[in-house]
Write a structure and sequence with these properties.
three-stranded antiparallel beta sheet, globular, binds zinc ion, 133 residues
Length: 133
């Protein structure tokens, strides 16, 4: 399942990437038509806060402002499997592919490095919360 978040859902896009889902983020400059076209070409489901855009059948309206509530909603709506720990598959910054490099992972697109740092426990706690609600 591939997602495309509108520019208002940047934090939701980060959560989806952390849990191993391919999620692109639209920029502020992209028009609704451009977002719809990109979703069509790449076979993505659009997640949006925009009621007008959400009238298109490729879109799902996200009815919350809080990123954690948004993530709960998406998990339930699509029956997503949430791993109990972050997954090193997509870069949370740019959605690029991550490759393993020793004890770290590196984004092939932006070079960002990832490792099991202090944020690990916080993310795992949220994963457990998602799986218990
Ligand atoms: Zn990256």
């Amino acid at each position: 399942m591939l997602f495309l978040c509108d520019a208002m859902l940047a934090k939701l896009a980060v959560w989806l990437r952390i849990f191993g889902y391919d999620c692109e983020l639209a920029s502020d400059e992209e028009s609704d038509d451009e977002i719809l076209e990109r979703a069509k070409i790449e076979g993505r489901i659009i997640l949006t806060r925009d009621k007008a855009l959400a009238r298109d059948k490729r879109c799902v309206l996200i009815p919350y402002d809080d990123p954690k509530k948004q993530m709960e909603f998406v998990k339930k709506r699509f029956n997503l499997v949430i791993p109990n720990e972050p997954v090193f598959r997509f870069c949370s910054r740019c959605n690029g592919r991550l490759v393993k490099d020793g004890s770290k992972w590196r984004c092939v697109d932006c070079g960002q490095e990832y490792w099991k740092g202090s944020h690990w426990r916080r993310i795992s706690a949220f994963a457990q919360h998602l799986n218990n609600t």
